[in-house]
Amino acid sequence: MKNDDNLPTDFWSKNLIKSGQTLACAESCTGGGLSARITDIPGISAVFQGGVIAYDNAVKSEVLQVPVEALEQQGAVSQPVAEAMALGVRALLSTDFALSTTGVAGPGGGSADKPVGLVWMAIAGPQGVRSEKRLFSGNREQIRAQAIEYSLQMLNTALIQSDTEY
Q1: How much of the chain exceeds pLDDT 90, in percent?
Q2: How much is the pTM?
Q3: Which of 3, 13, 83, 101 is deepest in the core (most CB within 10 A)?
Q4: For residues 16-29, average pLDDT
């Protein structure tokens, strides 16, 4: 992902509102925090359609249409699941863009393969879907906050690059 540290933090919201492009979220480890961050923006109701907090795998598979095989073979914290969550909520809510988060926020639940702080984030849009894996540090609140902000940076990048495939 291109680093867009020079962009204002609300670039994504101004761009979405100006263009009329819509957004949805599918969240696991952020537990609604990403949607809350988005709805902090005045005027965002014009483009934010909603979100699904898919903490349980049954919600991921039944509501977001994440393949059960992906959950069983790769686990909830994985690239295929993050991408399927973003695609699923985008289809469910008929939006231009969708973000998803799935990870291990801690303090427990980590493993050697999937340590505390590991988060997969995905964005689905007109050009397809892409995902990124990050290992964030800190406590549960800090990990979730970093995942939220990184997801919004992914949206910034996607909006900038919307005329090219990710």
Answers
A1: 86
A2: 0.93
A3: 101
A4: 95
Cα 123 from Cα 155, distance rounded (Å): 7
Residue in the structure block whose two tokens are 């509102």: 17
Helix axes 11-19, 140-160, angle to 10 degrees: 40
pLDDT at 1: 39
Q: What is the pLDDT of residue 10?
A: 74
Nearest to 104 by CA among 96, 113, 95, 93: 113
Q: Which two tokens stand for residue 86?
A: 């973003």
Please give, one letter per residue, the 3-state secondary structure of the chain.
CCCCCCCCCCHHHHHHHHHCCCEEEEECCCCCHHHHHHHCCCCHHHCEEEEEECCCHHHHHHCCCCCHHHHHHHCCCCHHHHHHHHHHHHHHHCCCEEEEEEECCCCCCCCCCCCCCEEEEEEEECCEEEEEEEECCCCHHHHHHHHHHHHHHHHHHHHHCCCCCC
Q: How far is the first Cα of the chain from the last one, in angstroms, to the nearest whole number?
A: 9
35: tokens are 């949607």
